[in-house]
Specification:
The chain is an all-alpha fold. The protein has 13 helices and no strands.
Length: 259
């Protein structure tokens, strides 16, 4: 990019390259790394400089991620709703992203019924053929994350039939999608965590095995702690208690170190 003359074309190319770099950083190391913070700030500045809505809303989303990853859930939620208000008359993709941000913030705030309302607003507007490509930029497919969010809300509320329906849709979409981040994310939460929360340990163990294989084959260091934790739980369930506790503790240590 440094060989190009200064100007809009160079800045647009830099924005695309930095978004690609952020995807790699998130997949490999997670959200809590200094390099990602620097990239998010640069992406936000470039998007504002370019001045297009198409670039601005994804940049606002990176700011929202940065606020949330710092642990400030209230500020993250307030920011998400500010974005939603600012794009009320914007494009459908802008509004879809805003609904996703608001819903996820509400989920993290344990406002589950309100989160479902926002997630369902997303699904009511979303059409895969029209919006899919624009929502697959970056490290994750936002539609898949929304479906998983609905599964998680219903799981936490004890609506297990609804949770299972959304979880099936989530896995179907994740297995068809390109990019390992989508599937590993879904395996951790929809596959392992949700089944652990509902006491379905056989299912959790099955997904934990798949998660471990995917993490090892892909060399996904950030997700290794999650894989170790749930694989340890699976071994405990299968009667390998000593080995299982050792592996689960190793996973906890890895998760604490990564965050």
């Amino acid at each position: 990019n440094g060989r190009m003359p200064e100007g809009r074309d160079r800045e647009e190319r830099e924005l695309g390259l930095r978004l690609d770099l952020m995807s790699v950083l998130i997949t490999e190391r997670g959200y809590a790394v200094d390099a990602l913070k620097s990239e998010m700030e640069r992406v936000s500045a470039l998007s504002r400089k370019l001045g297009t809505t198409e670039n601005l809303v994804p940049a606002l989303q990176t700011q929202w991620v940065l606020i949330g990853s710092s642990g400030n859930i209230t500020a993250s939620k307030d920011f998400a709703f500010q974005v939603r208000e600012s794009v009320r008359g914007g494009s459908e993709v802008d509004r879809l992203l805003a609904h996703c941000m608001c819903a996820t913030s509400l989920l993290f705030s344990a406002e589950l019924e309100e989160a479902i309302v926002e997630y369902e607003r997303f699904m009511g507007l979303y059409e895969p053929g029209r919006h899919g490509p624009a929502l697959r930029t970056g490290h994750a497919d936002h539609a898949i994350m929304v479906m998983m969010g609905l599964a998680e809300c219903h799981t936490l509320m004890g609506n297990l039939e609804a949770a299972d329906r959304w979880r099936e849709r989530t896995f179907a979409a994740a297995r068809q999608a390109q990019g390992v981040h989508n599937l590993v994310h879904v395996l951790v939460f929809a596959g392992c965590l949700h089944h652990a929360l509902t006491g379905r340990t056989e299912e959790m163990a099955r997904f934990a095995d798949e998660l471990v294989q995917l993490v090892e084959e892909g060399g996904l260091a950030f997700w290794r702690g999650h894989a170790e934790l749930f694989a340890g739980f699976a071994r405990i369930h299968r009667g390998e208690e000593d080995e299982g506790f050792v592996q689960a503790r190793r996973g906890v240590k890895a998760l604490l170190a990564a965050n």
